[in-house]
Inverse folding.
């Protein structure tokens, strides 16, 4: 398998052209504050929008192939294209090869200069990113997941039958890879078995034992199975991947009971805000005002306009916190590093007691947005605080990004 | 001072006649848009190859390194039957060099066809010189002495025949910044 690398992402919508990133780069790389000598160049204008000229650390770099002196090389460990001053003959042919203005003459020293991601710096990470006051630059290190997980066995069958653009396949494959082969999986009626986890024609869709409980008894059945495995002395992870309807409505009684007894289960809920595989009916996790086939939006009848769902969404993860579980967290596939951290903690917690992971999952079919927009919708949901990513342990209570979410106000009498 | 490159074609002289006429050559080895010679299963690329020019259908020897690597890539892909192969767009003059303490960059054609327009500017104090040739709003060639711009970006503006009419004055004032702007909008 190929390797993934860390990268610098640029969000043009957040950039106001202040140039702080260029100053930071010039300071670190040239010891001056001359923005023209920065390796990262912000171009454009207020009216037209700002853009970026920066080395892309190409996989098949033209600058490297045109260099007659072998002064440029791709480092396949870091992904960085490295420039060797001792070999460079200052011919500037690399600046012809690069079509992205990623390598250019630094007139201050008379040599070419390019971004090296500050790998050799004490921080080992780009200086430009933390200098941005508007979060327009992000240092993406998700490649770690790709490099690690890519070599693990995929425990789902190829060719799952998901809707186009659905992120649940990603979630299923990543989760099972992480949890590993010593797992028993429960997938109650919903999108996950609909996509093929329970299989077709007498063969399962997974390479691990999987069963298809009723909507109502998922947690109860899984608790029994886990207890039986314990009795015979086998260490397994008891994993449920359920939908929000199956967990928050019909399956809630057995879920609540298992959580209260602190059964050693990892219960993952894929929340797409409704019963999406049966025709997009509302669930108790459908938010206020949302369209579903049973909460229409439009003219209505009898003089009453149809206003979508008229109740608020049930906050299921918060209800699970009230069960004092070993671990509760919310996550999103738009933030895979965060999801992985929480999955690791949930797996560990499920060896001690009940671990609950609630993953927000935009539904391309049910929500009716373009199929290439799933990650964008998931990201926007978090950025706008429509959903919040947080975690709960008994020791820390609810925290988000390591900070407490509960503010205690002392009131003087 | 010396200029130009002359491939040694002597070893191709006196080839056998008959159905296989040998490798066709002129000043260099004549190749197609996929770097194939006149003989099946023989390809040529680089300084020895005489391939299509970007500005002219006549085949030219364009002996510069960036072009050689591009030709080599195309020849390799053609040999392997790679379905991702794109035909050679044609060679273009490109160079960058130091002389007498100055730095020059040249991209594209210096020929001025009918209807083309040549714009030059020279600043005596800084020694900065710029010359650009336009035809119908599109760039044909750009030359700078002590005037820095990204040669790779300019090359793409010419190859993609980008219409610069709307940004022409800004482009001439600062080809580096405006070139980068266009790059990030058009092919990033």
């Amino acid at each position: 398998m190929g390797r993934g690398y860390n990268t610098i992402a640029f969000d043009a919508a957040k950039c106001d052209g202040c140039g702080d990133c260029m100053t930071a780069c010039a300071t670190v790389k040239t010891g001056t504050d001359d923005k023209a000598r920065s390796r990262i160049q912000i171009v454009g204008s207020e009216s037209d929008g700002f853009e970026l000229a920066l080395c892309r650390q190409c996989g098949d770099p033209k600058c490297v192939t045109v260099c007659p002196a072998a002064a440029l090389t791709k480092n396949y460990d870091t992904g960085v294209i490295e420039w060797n001053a001792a070999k460079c003959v200052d011919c500037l042919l690399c600046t012809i090869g690069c079509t992205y203005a990623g390598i250019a003459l630094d007139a201050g020293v008379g040599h070419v200069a390019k971004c090296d991601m500050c790998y050799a710096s004490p921080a080992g990470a780009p200086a430009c990113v933390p200098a941005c006051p508007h979060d327009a630059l992000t240092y993406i290190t998700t490649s770690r997941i790709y490099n690690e997980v890519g070599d693990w066995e995929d425990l789902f069958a190829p060719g799952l039958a998901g809707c186009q653009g659905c992120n649940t396949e990603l979630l299923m494959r990543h989760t099972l890879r992480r949890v590993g082969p010593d797992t028993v999986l429960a997938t109650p009626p919903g999108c996950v078995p609909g996509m093929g986890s329970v299989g077709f024609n007498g063969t399962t869709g997974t390479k691990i034992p999987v069963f298809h409980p009723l909507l109502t008894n998922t947690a109860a059945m899984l608790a029994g199975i886990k207890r039986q495995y314990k009795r015979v002395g086998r260490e397994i992870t008891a994993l449920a991947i359920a939908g929000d309807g199956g967990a928050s409505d019909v399956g809630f009684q057995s879920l609540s009971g298992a959580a209260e007894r602190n059964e050693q289960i990892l219960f993952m809920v894929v929340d797409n805000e409704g019963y999406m595989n049966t025709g997009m009916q509302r669930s108790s996790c459908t938010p206020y005002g949302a369209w579903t086939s049973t909460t229409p939006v439009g003219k209505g009848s009898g003089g009453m306009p149809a206003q979508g769902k008229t109740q608020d969404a049930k906050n299921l993860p918060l209800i699970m916190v009230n069960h004092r579980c070993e671990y509760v967290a919310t996550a999103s596939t738009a933030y895979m590093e965060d999801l992985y951290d929480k999955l690791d903690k949930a797996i560990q917690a499920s060896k001690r007691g009940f671990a609950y992971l609630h993953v927000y999952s935009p539904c391309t079919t049910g929500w009716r947005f373009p199929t290439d927009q799933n990650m964008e919708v998931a990201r926007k949901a978090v950025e706008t605080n429509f959903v919040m990513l947080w975690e709960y342990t008994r020791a820390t209570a609810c925290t988000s990004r390591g900070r407490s979410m509960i503010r205690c106000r002392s009131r003087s009498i | 001072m010396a200029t130009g490159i002359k491939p040694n074609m002597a070893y191709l002289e006196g080839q056998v006649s008959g159905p296989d006429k040998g490798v066709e050559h002129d000043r260099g080895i004549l190749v197609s848009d996929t770097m194939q010679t006149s003989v099946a299963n023989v390809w040529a690329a680089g300084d020895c190859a005489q391939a299509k020019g970007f500005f002219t259908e006549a085949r030219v020897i364009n002996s510069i390194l960036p072009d050689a690597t591009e030709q080599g890539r195309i020849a390799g892909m053609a040999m392997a039957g790679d379905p991702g192969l794109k035909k050679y767009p044609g060679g273009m003059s490109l160079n960058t060099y130091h002389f007498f303490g100055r730095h020059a960059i040249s991209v594209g054609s210096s020929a001025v066809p009918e209807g083309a327009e040549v714009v030059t500017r020279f600043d005596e104090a800084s020694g900065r010189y710029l010359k650009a040739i336009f035809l119908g709003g599109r760039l044909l060639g750009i030359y700078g002495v002590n005037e820095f711009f990204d040669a790779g970006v300019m090359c793409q503006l010419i190859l993609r025949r980008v219409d610069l009419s709307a940004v022409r004055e800004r482009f001439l004032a600062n080809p580096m910044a405006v070139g980068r702007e266009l790059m990030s909008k058009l092919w990033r």
Q: What stands out?
A: The interface with chain A takes residues 65-66, 69, 73, 94, 96-98, 103, 105, 107, 148, 150-153, 155-156, 176-177, 179-181, 183-185, 187-188 of chain B (CB under 8 Å).
